[in-house]
């Protein structure tokens, strides 16, 4: 991207806090946000073949084929290109396979952008499992309420009063599948970005604010 623009990817185990951190970065730097999981969940709502199939695949915790994920972010990149006020964007949760990582590089060359940093928000499998099993998301505004001591008595969203919902793929079987896929697919992707000098590993086991601070330190000089 140009000198005044920022392009960031956030990767990590399910529940690592990619989405939480992506939203903080977007807010701080006024960037556009693309969460592949969120966009795919929205795509499920279309009553067509792909909408139905996405429900089936994602509920089991399996990966969606790269051609579908890349179609969705390509459409978004095209939109970004048309926006002359764009300050940059955050990709949350993509790429998930090496073919997708290569396609993304190709697309970025096409659009004359480049990724500044790829953050790996690193947590153990145990933390991942515990966080997802307890995740509470507001049905109205989408806010995530962490399962921490200070929030444990909260029964509805403290932002808008909406009820909490459990994501369909946050059941033990799907969580196990998502973790197994992560272990299988992520190592070569991390190597790919390491070789490009873009990978930054962040300790995701710290409190949310500390994780964000570490990310910010690594963004100094990028803008
Ligand atoms: P996606 O929606 O991206 O799900 P995921 O990767 O499983 O990750 P999560 O959204 O569950 O967790 P997160 O890391 O964002 O953590 P969060 O901030 O929510 O993808 C869903 C599905 O879509 C995939 O399984 C796949 O099928 C498909 N998909 C998506 N992209 C694809 C692609 N490119 N190709 C193919 N398929 C694709 O935090 C989790 C919880 O922890 C929250 O409760 C939060 O409040 C809490 N928390 C966060 N940080 C902290 C912290 N530091 N301390 C304590 N609690 C914390």
Write the layout of secondary structure elements.
Elements (H helix, E strand, L loop, with lengths): L5 E7 L5 H12 L2 E4 H8 L5 H11 L6 H16 L6 E5 L5 H13 L6 E6 L2 H10 L1 E3 L5 E2 L18 E2 L6 H24 L3 E5 L4 H12 L4
Parallel strand pairs: 1-3, 1-4, 2-3, 4-8
Antiparallel strand pairs: 5-6, 5-7
Helix pairs in contact: 1-8, 4-5, 6-7
Bound molecules: BIS(adenosine)-5'-pentaphosphate.
BIS(adenosine)-5'-pentaphosphate (AP5) binds next to helix 1, helix 2, helix 6 and helix 8.
Entry summary:
This protein is α/β, with parallel strands linked by helices and 223 residues long.
Give helix % range. 40-55%
Mean pLDDT: 93
| Percent of residues in beta strands | 15-25%
N-to-C CA distance: 11 Å
Bound molecules: BIS(adenosine)-5'-pentaphosphate
| Tally of strands | 8
Low-confidence stretches: none
Determine the number of helices (DSSP H or I, runs of at least 4 residues). 8
How do the strands of the widest beta sheet line up side by side?
2-3-1-4-8
H/E topology pattern: EHEHHHEHEHEEEHEH
Q: Main β-sheet: number of strands, strand sense, barrel status?
A: 5 strands, parallel
Q: Which shape, going by the Cα principal axes?
A: globular
Structural classification = alpha/beta
Based on CA atoms alone, the radius of gyration comes out at: 17 Å
């Amino acid at each position: 991207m140009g000198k005044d623009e920022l392009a960031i990817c956030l990767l990590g185990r399910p529940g690592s806090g990619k989405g939480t951190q992506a939203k903080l970065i977007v807010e701080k730097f006024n960037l556009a946000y693309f969460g592949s999981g969120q966009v795919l969940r929205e795509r499920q709502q279309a009553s067509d073949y792909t909408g139905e199939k996405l429900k089936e695949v994602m509920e089991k915790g399996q990966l969606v084929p790269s051609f579908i994920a890349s179609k969705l972010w390509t459409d978004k990149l095209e939109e970004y290109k048309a926006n002359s006020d764009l300050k940059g964007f955050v990709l949350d949760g993509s790429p998930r396979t090496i073919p997708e990582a290569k396609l993304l590089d190709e697309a970025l060359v096409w659009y004359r952008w480049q990724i500044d940093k790829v953050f790996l928000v690193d947590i153990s499998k145990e933390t991942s499992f515990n966080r997802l099993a307890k995740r509470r998301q507001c049905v109205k505004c989408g806010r995530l309420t962490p399962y921490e001591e200070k929030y444990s008595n909260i029964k509805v969203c403290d932002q808008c009063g909406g009820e909490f919902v459990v994501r369909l793929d946050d059941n033990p079987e799907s969580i196990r599948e998502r973790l197994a896929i992560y272990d299988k697919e992520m190592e070569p992707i991390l190597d790919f970005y390491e070789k490009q000098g873009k990978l930054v590993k962040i300790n995701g086991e710290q409190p949310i604010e500390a994780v964000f601070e570490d990310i910010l330190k690594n963004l100094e000089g990028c803008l």
